[in-house]
Each structure stands twice: as C-alpha cells, then as structure tokens.
C-alpha cells in the first residue's frame, strides 16, 4: 500500500519526462495516490498503537540500513495532506508555456519526496526523500517563477540546504549516541532505545538544538524565515501550494516524529528558547505581515506566522498541544494551499498583486471572492474550519503547561501573546480581503473572468475536507491520539 | 432530537442556498424563511416541553486531559431565549422579503441571515465554554457578512472589518478567561465548573477570570470601550440592523453573562466593575444619541445605552432583571428598526432626519407602530419598557446610589433623544420633496411591524412576562417609578420645546456630535502603535534580518563558494555538492564508527 502511494507519483514523474501527456498523467497519478491514501486512512486501525502497513526491504545488514515504510496516525494524516494538496495543485496548474512536462514532473517529484519522507520509518530515507523534494522546488522557482525569481530560488536553496545540513549533523549525532549494539536507522529501534534510557540527557540537549535549528530553518522558524515569503511570492502557484502546504511541514513533522519521542529531556531543556523564537513568529512576524503591501507577500508572511502556533503546540509537549500541532499542520496545509492557488489565478488575470491596485474584485469574480473568503477565514482560525479545533487544542495544551494557578508561567504568557496573535491575523487577513475583494471595482477590472468552472473540483475538495474536519475534529484526533499517548505515557 | 433540529435547520438552509439555489434569488429567500419558521415552531414546542434532555456528542475527546463536548442546555433561560430569537428572527426574515426584494445579492443575503440564526441559536443552546466560543465567533463572521453585504461601498466594507476585529479583541479576553477557568476547574462544561472547589476558594483568580470572560461580552454587546463598531454597523441593510440590535448579536453578550452568572456573581469586585462599565456605556451612548442626525444611528446609540442598562443589571447581581429588559428591548427595538427601515425604504434610502418631516400622515401604520416602540423605549407606563427599566432602577436604588442616579439621568436622556427623533421625523412640515411624496410600505413589511407592536406594548405586564421569564422580585417602592416618570416627562417636554417646527438642529454640541472623539482617538492609537510597530518590524525584517544577517552570511558563503564557481559549477550542482557532502558524512560515520 505505502509503496504504491510513494512510487506512483515518482513513476508518473518519470513517465512524464519520457513524454506521456503531462497533465493527464499527472492528474491520474496524483488521483490514484489520493485514492490509495484515503483507503489507507479508512483502513487504519486507530485502536492499535504502533505502526501499520509496514514494508521493509533490507539494504545492508552491516549498517542496519533498510528501506522501511510504515505509518501511524501522525504520518497518516500527513500523507493524506500531501496527496490531497498534490492533486489540487496539479489541477490548479494553468497552461504552461515552456517545458510543460518538466513542470509537472517537478510537481510530482516534490509530492513523491514528501510522501516518501512522511512514510519512512528509517532516518536515512526520511532524510533522503526530503532532499529529493527540495531540488525540484528550486527548479520550479528558478525556471517557471515570476518577479525576482533567480534570487528567490537561490535564497531558498541555500537556506534549505544549510538547514538540511544542520539537520543531518543532528541525525548523525543521534545515530552515534546510541550504543553500538543498538545502533540503527530504524525509528522504532531508536524509540525503544530512548525508552530504555540509552540517550543521555546531555546528548539530548545537543542533538535537540541541532534538530531544532535544522528543522526550524526548513519550517521558517524565526529568525530563519526570510526565504519563505520571497520564495512563495516568486514561485508559480502550484509550487507555492505544494511547498507551503506540504513540504514546509516536514520540519514540524520531524520535530514531532523524532525530537519529541526520542529527546524529551532535550525538548524540556530548550523550551525557553523555542518559546521565544515561536513568539517571534507569531507577534513579530504578525506585525510584519500587517505592513505588507502585496497579496502574495502577505500570504507568505502569514503562513510563516502560523508556523508559530504549530511550534507552540510542539513546545507544550503534552497530548493536547501536540494533537493540536499535528492537526494544525494538516489544516494549515489545506487553507494555505487554497489561498495560494487562488492568488495565482488572480495574478494570471490582473498581472498585479499590489493591494492598492486591486479592489472590488468580489463584483467581477464572485466565486473567487467567496472561496478566497472561506480560505482566509479558515486560515485565521474561524470555527467550522479545521484550523479552529487545532488552535483551540494548542491553546489549551500550552496554557496547561507548568500551570501554577497563582502566577503566570512562561507558557501562560506565551499563550496570552499567541492569543493576541489571533487578533493580529484577523487584522491583516481582513485588511487584505477588504483591499482585494471589497470596495469599488475600478474600470480596469470590470471584465475580469471569474474562476474556470473546472477549478470547482479541487476547491470544493479542499473546502469540504476543511469543513468536515472543522465540524468533526474527532475524525482526525482519534487517529492521532494513540501516537501521542505513547509519547507521553509516562507523564 | 427536536432542539437539534431547531439549531441545525438554519444551517441546512444556508448550505442549501450556497450550494444549490444560489442562482434563483427568490427561491433562496423562501428556503431561508421556511427554515426559520420551522425553527420557530420547533422552539415553541421545545418551550412547552420540559425535562427532555438531548444527548451530547464528543467534539474533541482527549480524556482525561481535555474534553470538549457538543451538547445543549435546556433550562428556562435558554428555552425562552429560543422562542425570542427565532420569533423576532422570523419576523425579520419576512420583512427582508420586502426590503431586499430587488437586491442583487439576495441569495447571499439570505444565506448569511440563516447562518446568523444558526450561530445565535448555538450560543443560546451551548452547554459549555468551547461550544459557546465557537458560535460566538460564528456570530462574529456572519455579522461581518451581513454588515458588509453591500461590500462595494467602501463605508460598508470598512464597517464590517471594524466590527469583526473589535469583536476579536473582546474574544481575546474571553478565550483567556475560558483557559483560566478550565485550568482551575478542569472542565469547560458549565454544570461541571459550577461544582469546582478551586474557584470558590481563590477570589483573586476568580475575579480575573470573570473579568476576562466579561471582555467577550464587552465586545459582542458593544460596551464601552469596545462600543465603536455598533454605530458603524448601521452600514448593513436595515433588517440586519434590527436583527443585530434586537434579539441577537448584542443580546448574546448579556445572555452569556447570565449563563455564566454562577462565576461572576461570586466575585464582588468583578460585579462592581461590570456595573460601572454598563453605567458608563448607558450614559455616554445616551449623550451621543442626542446629537446624531442619521435615524439609524440614533437608534444604534439608543441600543448601546439600553445594553448599558442590561449590563448594569448583571453587575448588580440580577440576571433576571437583565433578561427581563433584554426581552422587552428585543421586541421594541426590532420594531423601531423595522419602522425606520420602512421610512428609509419609502424615502429611497434617505436616512438624515432633517430631510424628513411630517411623515405621520403619509406612513400611517409605520407611524403608529413607531410611536408604540418609542413609548416602550422611553419607559412610558404601561408600555413594556417601563416595567423592565423600573426593575433595574429598583435594583440600583437598593444596591448603589450613584448608579441609580445615573440610571435616572439616562431615562431622561432616552426620552429626550427619542422625542427629538419623533418630532423631527413625523411632525412639522416635510423638508424635502421625497418626504412630501412618501407613501406606506408594502404589507409584507408593515405586518411584522404590527406583530411586533403587540409584545412591545404588552410584554411588560407580569401576566405575560412570567410565562417566559423568572421575574426579579425586589420590593417595590413607589418613589422610583415616580422619579423615572418625572425624568421621562422632563425629557419629552424639553425635546418638544427645542425641536418643534425646526428646520435645522438648534443645538450644536461638537463634542457629542463627534462622539467624544473616541473613534478618532482609536484611529490615532492604532496608527501610532500597531501601524508604527508593523512598519518598524517590516523594515527590520527586510533590512536587518534579511539584509544584513542573511545576505551578509550568504556573502561569506559566496566567498567560500567561489571555488565551486571556478569549477564551473552551476546552482544545482552546488546544491548537489552539499547534499553529496552530507551523504558522504553519513556513510563515513555509519561505516567507520
């Protein structure tokens, strides 16, 4: 099952490079992946802890290296997110003028890399799959991007390569910390070793810091965030959807997958630092977002800002907060993908995304106005959409930490400021929505065509999932729950 | 199951309109009206049946750490509130059929209206804080949609944004209060919090939590200092103003305070603060109302002022008195707004009272019903407002003399500005051509007026009110009704002397006309705090973090990477080099250690 999910997009990418009709192959490939992921999700047994659908192929017995795939609730919802967003991003892809096959192949490589990273239980392939996804991102921005695309492509590449390098150091140290007899790339074996107390507290502290910085760069943790808005503004819309929606979550996924269960001591040690940095994301970048004058930059910054909430869930290191973090990864991926997709459509029509030049587009493009509104309200955590239960869980989880009812602990202060961030996000999102879709429609935009009818399918798909999860968060939470219960069983 | 139907029918209607009937505008309207009528009938049945409890579903279940159910409360408060919300809501829906008949966005309007009803019913029925907060925010967004219905008007678009953001500021405190209560009590369900021991033994903590929760009500019920969104919300279509002002949105704050009364009433400090916030709002809004010229804005400020009364009553530890005034106010304020809407509709969207005049002869039904509403609002016996206002004043008299005196002063102000409105709009000469040629509105609009006039006139009497509410039983003193009556007569007399047969406003108080410059102050404050901070941080991000730190270090990297360039390595290869280096490192450690 997982082999199918991971290799269908990669296979489709190769086929496209060999010359099959690009769009059709990509749609069929990603559609099949989505169906397979859904089947896996429905067939998943959430009452049982541990990994399911495990496939393993031994590569080298000496190095204890194997190609190992398997999922638990956490990786399963990430697979679902990746498959869903890929399908929609491909559907959203407009007519590509030059090298269409290359474009679609890049998208599918990103998707396959992300899916592979989420499904891998082996640190080596976990890392390698992510690297596989980074290269096409660079190509997509550098070749098919807009604006200052070369600089943006360079910046994101250097940044992410550096992040990956730090991450790699951390992973190697982690591998080496475990006594030789137990040494393995197998995550399950490492978890067993960690549970047996084989990773000393001081080693945990070092490794956690490396992982935090490495994963943090990949996830645009303050102050390593400046690549993100620029890259998203320059990237073609489908690439921005895939990267902001899926690939960026890899860093957070890594923290939840590796750092929290293996290095609980390290996590505790660096809590203060992480909280300061994530507040940088929420408050500082929230303010920066308000000052943005272009829609794509605003969205790019807002997506960076929302990473702060997920980090807050990770930092809270308890079952409520981490469930919230995982759910917010999922929810944010959907909402930001929708927003970037629509932004791309607007850019194609108007040629500009400067807020002051737009206005009243809701009259010319009522359907776009409606769904952009839905995406915007979902992104700022309106109830009814998936982001809201996730944020609620993060707030409750974080607020409970170190709860001393007589005075405010760092976690309570962080929650308070993060709550203020909710006001900030309402300010920038409504301001942008007001500037683009409301107000008087200028003569220039009178004849803009509304969204293409066929785009309704991916839009409805995204909105429907956001609504279903928003109304019934338990559908996702009950899948996630066993994973995090096993993390925090001792507490 | 029935309460669930009452709650979900409007949502179903909203979804149906959005997905299916969007293209057919009149069909959409009928779907929405049918849903609210069915909801109303259901509410009446729920109201008569006692004891039937609905099951609650798990919404987020992470027990034992966290549990947020989705359950309904059915106590006397929520039952009667259900009937009120759906009843007034249904009349406003019907009235909208006339008022919005030719509107381009009619389907969108009715879908938002249905969504609004769903959200409001959710607040009424919520049995826990999380669910209350969910619907609380949903009310916020549906009011955003309704206020911004004519979104191509810049003023409406700005008003909608302002309403939503102001409410979010209140909700910031509300959520924080919820978190505090939960961390102390370990539950978000009202009935389980009530029995928590920690809150009872820590008055300081409780006061902080209660005041934070009150912040939510300050936002939603538009109390000072977050009152600024409500007058601007007049930019929405008039039926929306009626809906927001009468039985729903602004009432939600008061209702929530009554619902969590078990928390608030244990803390004397919180009570005092709440009472004074209510009083302040009542006084300043009353003062501002005396100098407005837009008919809807006058009514808007009067709503603020009356909400001040209700919050004052909550602060005086009487949820019953607050609910009583909420009920009577709901009917007469809906009536006044719909009456104003009828005038505006017939005068082709003219809202300036100084361009009206002499309308009493042309709009017969509107005039008579408006008169009933006014008499109820100014507390003229035996109309409904008299009784409920009296109940609050009696409370204040017993518990807090300064608040009592201010309360009487507000009664005077109310009489003054409402009489001013009445005299200028309905009597004297018509001041413009449109006012000369106005004629009565269609029946679909006047019938709701007549239907609302009945409760506006009668609902104050104990015989009727007691069927719906638990009335406060304070001991009656004859002096208070007399004082209130005298204040009212003074207000009426003064207004008549000033405004009889005037062409322009003889009074000009710039401070009041400009609403104490509070809005201007906020604009200034936002510009110099948030705006300035945003610009500074954006500059910092662009030039310091990105410019100096990132580009600086990338410059260093360039230096190092120069070797790579000499080897004619392009971008991709440079990247691949790093990757390859990593792989080699990994393999090295794996093999040789």
- The overall strand count of chain A is 2
Model regions low in confidence, pLDDT < 50 over at least 5 residues of chain A? none
Shape of chain A: globular
Distance between the termini of chain A: 35 Å
**N-to-C SSE series of chain A?**
HHEEHHHHHHHHHHHHHHHHHHH
Number of separate helices of chain A:
21
Low-confidence stretches of chain B: none
Range of helix content of chain B: over 70%
The H/E string of chain B reads: HHEEHHHHHHHHHHHHHHHHHHHHHHHH
Mean pLDDT of chain A: 88
N-C termini distance of chain B: 67 Å
Verbal overview:
The complex is a heterodimer of chains A (491) and B (593). Chain A has helices at 2-18, 22-43, 73-92, 100-119, 123-144, 149-177, 187-195, 201-218, 227-234, 237-247, 249-262, 264-269, 271-290, 295-316, 319-350, 361-364, 366-379, 387-400, 410-437, 456-471, 474-487, and strands spanning 52-60, 65-71. In chain A, helix 3 (73-92) runs parallel beside helix 15 and helix 8 (201-218) runs antiparallel to helix 11 (249-262). Chain A is 73% helix and 3% strand. With 491 residues, chain A is mostly helical. Chain B has 593 residues and is an all-alpha fold. Chain B has a two-stranded antiparallel ribbon with strand order 1-2. In chain B, 75% of the residues lie in helices and 2% in strands. In chain B, a hairpin with a 3-residue loop joins strand 1 (57-62) and strand 2 (66-70). Chain B has helices at residues 2-19, 25-48, 76-99, 106-125, 129-147, 154-185, 190-194, 197-201, 203-220, 229-232, 238-245, 249-259, 261-264, 268-289, 295-315, 319-346, 364-377, 384-399, 401-426, 433-436, 443-458, 462-468, 479-499, 510-513, 518-566, 571-592; strands at residues 57-62, 66-70.
